[in-house]
Hints:
The protein is α+β, with helices and mostly antiparallel strands. It is about 55% helix and about 15% strand. The chain has 3 domains: about 5-150, Sensor histidine kinase RisS, periplasmic domain (Beta-Lactamase); about 210-285, Helix Hairpins (Orthogonal Bundle), CATH 1.10.287; about 290-430, Histidine kinase-like ATPase, C-terminal domain (Heat Shock Protein 90, 2-Layer Sandwich), CATH 3.30.565. The longest helix has about 55 residues, at about 10-60. The relative contact order is 0.07.
Amino acid sequence: MKWWGGSFFWRTLAVLVIALVASQAASFWIFRHLVQQPRMAMGIGQFVSHLKTIHAALNTLPPGAEREFLGQLAEKEGIRVFPAMGHEPGRPAADMPGMRMFRARIKALFGEETEVFVRPGAPGILWVRMVAGPRAFWVAFPRNRVDRDNTDALVYWMIAGVAIAIAATGLIAWRLNRPLARLARAAEALGRGGDPEPVPESGPSEVRAVARAFNRMKESLKDEERERTTFLAGISHDLRTPLARLRLDVEMLEGRVAAETQKGMVDDIEDMNAIIDQFIDYARSEATEAFEPVNLSWLARECAERAARAGARATCELAETPLLMLRPLAARRLVDNLIQNAAKHAGGDIVVRTTAGEREVSVAVLDRGPGIAPADIERLKEPFTRRDDARSGRSGAGLGLAIVARIAKAHGARFDLAPREGGGLAASVAFPVSA
Length: 435
């Protein structure tokens, strides 16, 4: 059942409602069998004793005294007795629990031929044919003297009680669920690399304790992120100055060393600068950048054109894509890193492609390089991991794909590496349209 694995609110509400309905059903059964039916049996027993007294009086009283007795009986008890004149129209009363008990009592007392009747037009009156001596009498009395079945009232009471309990339970579950839902959303945002607002420390004491611990954890993670960023940025900045001096010294060696040696030294310095740039990109936090509407195809075209100006052979296959709420600079770094990774390791033609579906908009960079072994795909998304034997050519610090993975995670996107048809690698990031 999908809803059972759904939100905490519905699970809590379902458990409490089921428990309440079960308790109401148990209460109904206990009341009916241990309270209502014994009371009904007692009332029927008293009325049957009353009928027995009437039967005895009809057998013994003279005609004059009998008429006076029946008049007082009708006036005080609401019971009318009159001689039976042939077969009177009517039908047997329905076989309800109280009526079944009453019928069994009078049959045992007055004989098996005794029956309880109802007549059309008078559903609230019951009729019993009673034989007293040589004569037969009809005894008419209010139905509620023997048939006091309050099942309908009990059912209405149970339904009303369950409805009130469901409303109260829903309110309690909602009050419990609201702070937990806020906490879940904040944890999800934090897991994507965002910086959510502190969770309000409200609700039951246990929920407040969890919210307080989450807020402390979030601040601790922010402090650690800040320290890491400061550390990496400081090292990168400190390395810039000696590298700049070294580059200047190498340029001044022209004519003193072989041109090939000088070019190799310059390339090594450029590699070190590229590694420093990756450190700075990895240390930069995307959470500080605001979301803006971005056309992914336009952004991909800009990145491909910039890579082409830098010497990469990049072409575009772009689709019409809707605007997505993205962090523009972070999204640009994502595409740039995919193109740079393809240019560094493949060295051939690169295709930048965008596709739009109902639920996802994706950007992919395809190359014709050696590709990546399936066993290494997830490992190479981690920082500071490289696989030179799988991707030939110069290698940086192993942060390019890690930066892509982190930016994709911060946007709730899916980052995939897969073999390209015909050879090579297809690196794609699929952004949800809901973004």
